[in-house]
Structure formats: C-alpha cells, structure tokens
Amino acid sequence: MSTVPGTVAAALIRQVRHESGFNQAEIARRTGIHSSVLSAYEHGRRQPSVAALARIAAAGGLELRLDAPSVERSSVRNGRILAQVLDLAERLPYEPSPKLAYPPLFRAVA
Q1: Which of 33, 69, 90, 108 has the smallest number of Cβ neighbours within 10 A?
Q2: Is position 17 within any domain?
C-alpha cells in the first residue's frame, strides 16, 4: 500500500463513523478520547496509536485486527532484495588485494 499512514488512519475513522452512524462527539464519548484529538486524527493532523484506533473501532461496534504479512509474501520480497544485493555486488569493480605481510609472532633475542 503506497498511501500515507495518516490518511489510512483518517479513512479508517471516517469508515467507523459512517458504518456506525455516530458523529465525532459520540465516538469521542465512547472512547474517552477528547473530541479535538479525534478530529485531529480524522483530518490527518495527528497520528493515532494502534490502541487508539482499536478503541475507535470498538466504539463503532467494529473490531480492528492486524494480520502479519504471510510467510510466502515475505519470502518473495526477501528473494527480490537478495537478488538486488547480488546484482549490485557483481557490478563492483574487482581489485585483487595486495599480498598481506604478517609481522613475526616472536622475535629472536640474540
């Protein structure tokens, strides 16, 4: 999803209000969130926490459930990233390293 997070929360709050038939004041009363704060959330001026979004959804009789991304999608994404990294590594110029010279571990005392 390529939307701005604040607009997602605002759209969710509008959807809760629309589906529940409650106005902002009623949602604010049911959640214990000040109406000015709820208004700021709905207009994208503030970003609500997940807990606040869950309370807003519950006040409208809905449940907010967050699903983790599937393992299959994560594996595909990780594979694409790995392919990009390997492609970039192959494009680096090859420069053989100079012969390393190690200092002696012990010095002979004469």
Answers
A1: 108
A2: yes
Predicted TM-score (pTM) of the model is: 0.57
The domain of 46 spans: 5-59
Cα–Cα distance list, 5 to 8, 15, 33, 60, 71 (Å): 5, 15, 20, 21, 23
Q: Please return the burial class of 83, using the count of CB atoms within 10 Å of its CB with bins 0-12, 13-18 and 19+.
A: exposed
Q: Which position has the token pair 């004469």?
A: 110
Residue 12 lies in a domain: yes
Domain count, the chain: 1
Beta carbons of 33 and 26 less than 8 angstroms apart: no
For 62-78, b where at least 16 C-beta lie within 10 A, e where not — what string? Answer: eeeeeeeeeeeeeeeee
> How far is Cα 59 from Cα 63, in angstroms, rounded to an integer?
9
